Amino acid sequence: MEICVCVKRVPMVGGAIVVTPDGMDVDVTMSGFTVSPHEECAVEEAVQITERLGGSVAVLTLGPPEAADQVRDMLALGASRGVLLQTDGDEWGPIATAAAIAETVADRQYDLLLFGNESADTGGYQVPVRVAHVLGLPCVTGIKRLEVLGVGEGDDGPARIVAGREYRGTEESFEVLLPAVASVKEGINLPRYPSLPGRLRAKRATIETIEPSPRPESDGLRKIRLRVPESTSTGAQVLGSGAAAVPALVGLLDDLGVLP
Amino acid sequence: MTVLCLIETDAGGGAADASMRALAVARGLATSAGEDLAAAWFGSAEAIDPGGLVAAGVSSGCAIGTAALSGYAPLAWARALAGLATARPDAAGVVSGIVAAATDHGNEVLAHLGAITGLPMAANCVSAARTAPGEVTLVRQRWAGSLLEDAELDAPLALLTVAADAVPADAVMAGSTFAAADSLRVEGYEPELADGDLLVLAAESAERRSGVSLASARVVVGGGRGVGGPEGFAVLEELAGLLGGAVGVSRVVTSEGWRPHRQQVGQTGTKITPELYLACGISGAIQHMAGCQGAKTIVAINTDAGAPIVTKADYAVIGDLHEVIPALIAALRERQG
């Protein structure tokens, strides 16, 4: 199995998000960077699959030169090759991002392209689907269970995946022939901590750097400004301390109409 | 001109709550340009209660179905909506926008629609209004709602999904100033599908999890690191049971393996919209608050009066949940007699 996992460098946010004075970006002067938990799980899933069935995992990202750091973080988890589609750091919309990814992977013969279900920052929910359309591949999204069949011994059928996700209190599953595109969600596995040898290998690894075709002027969705939602809360009204607060709490629940 | 809203069905077969909330944003888009609001769903004409749709401002409905379409197939659904947008069988004319709830299905179908048409798709919108033909200004969520983006969408067909947790339940009905239709005119639409549109087709497992679903629970009892370990959740389950609610947890709880991931509330888990969220031993990281900002009232129980959740909650009890929750359970049992 040859698997390519696409990840995105995003700021690590803790207590609050701060917007730059021009309102166009998240202020990252004080923050570290990471990838979405969904994407970390996608890498873990890919590594587990190749550990079982052989093959290798490539990690691809589109972003500024510093995004190589996130590729190395993923190499430390067990991916073997890194690819950086290097940009000048401007935000690429989903249509342009998908075109650049599809252009890069089109002739690389991956069996499976894995993504996180949505990026942590812009949350566009569409790059995997758009990549699949450009490449003419089937696509499943929001996946929390992935099984590879027909690869290696034990199944004579064609190479395929059975992918499941939660839906209305039951599981919805899709059986799709490979090659295919799948986006996964956190919860599909518990990502491992990078091992020391893994980290050393990642540090030394050469990352293939590619200049993608120029980004089109507009994706059709133009950001005007970013803002932190106004908080309606002025701090909690304290009902009391410890068990002594229970009568007040019961009174509140009664007022809210949630008591049976 | 018409704005079309995709209505998904819930486990009981009726219109899903998230879709009804999406209708509120779709209605805002339609009324901003004096357009009609239409609803489309997959299934029979009788599948959706017309009364609820009319009250939400819908003037016409379209039941989409064909023999080949036996279940959920994302590409086929998108193909059908694209066909409907260009060949609407009624006289209302051209469809100017297609709106869906930002559910797994809604986001997936609208992403396919964007790819089929080559048009942009704006996910997790909070509001939208037309400023000119082919132009929509909108507000959408980034960082799962911790940040808002004001944006302009240039497209002959606006494709939007709606962050249901950002639409209050009482915004669903159109209100007395809206001239609602007397009744709902429902027509059928049979899409033309190619074999390739049905390659990804969902099968649903027969097993259904019992209990109240986290996403639609009226009361959610949340537990975080302060619960201390897997065994600590029994009292939270007991309290949730008493209140007819569900248990939700913070990310640390699922990454520690104390509870399954499906109970996670937050950016990478479930977004909840209960009447009451009782957050016990949860510090209130931004990623967690993104999942519970749709709660009408948040009550925090925390030993630390300085925890972020205490500043973000409506009410707080300062104390140890291991003391407060059993006392609350005892008080509720006594009340019930």
Provide a concise account of the structure shown.
The complex is a heterodimer of chains A (260) and B (337). Chain A is α/β, with parallel strands linked by helices.
Largest interface: A-B, 86 and 101 residues
Q: Helix- and strand-based class of chain A? A: alpha/beta
Largest sheet of chain A at a glance?
A: 7 strands, parallel
- What portion of residues of chain A belong to β-strands? 25-35%
Average of per-residue pLDDT values of chain B:
93
Number of strands of chain A: 14
> What's the helix count of chain A?
6
Rounded to the nearest angstrom, the distance between the terminal CA atoms of chain A is: 54 Å
Strand order of the largest sheet of chain B: 7-6-5-8-4-1-2-3-9
Strand order of the largest sheet of chain A: 7-11-6-1-4-5-12
Poorly predicted spans of chain B:
none
Structure description:
The complex is a heterodimer of chains A (260) and B (337). Chain A has 260 residues and is an alpha/beta fold. In chain A, helix 2 (68-75) runs antiparallel to helix 5 (196-204) and helix 3 packs across helix 4 (127-135). In chain A, a hairpin with a 2-residue loop joins strand 9 and strand 10 (170-177). Chain A has 6 helices and 14 strands. Helix content of chain A is 25%, strand content 29%. Chain A has helices at residues 37-53, 68-75, 94-105, 127-135, 196-204, 246-256, and strands at 2-7, 10-11, 33-34, 56-63, 81-86, 112-116, 139-143, 145-149, 160-167, 170-177, 180-184, 207-210, 221-227, 237-241. The model of chain A has no long low-confidence stretch (mean pLDDT 95). Chain B is α/β, with parallel strands linked by helices and 337 residues long. Chain B contains 9 helices and 15 strands. Chain B has helices at residues 17-32, 50-55, 74-86, 104-117, 233-242, 251-255, 286-292, 308-312, 321-336, and strands at residues 2-6, 36-42, 60-64, 95-101, 121-132, 135-142, 147-154, 158-162, 185-189, 203-204, 219-223, 246-249, 276-280, 297-302, 315-318. In chain B, the strands form 2 sheets. Chain B has a 9-stranded mixed sheet with strand order 7-6-5-8-4-1-2-3-9, with helices on both faces. Chain B has a 5-stranded parallel sheet with strand order 12-11-13-14-15. The relative contact order of chain B is 0.12. The model of chain B has no long low-confidence stretch (mean pLDDT 93). Chains A and B meet through helix 4, strand 7, strand 9, strand 10 and strand 13 of A and helix 4, strand 5, strand 6, strand 7 and strand 10 of B. Strand 14 (237-241) of chain A pairs parallel with strand 15 of chain B.
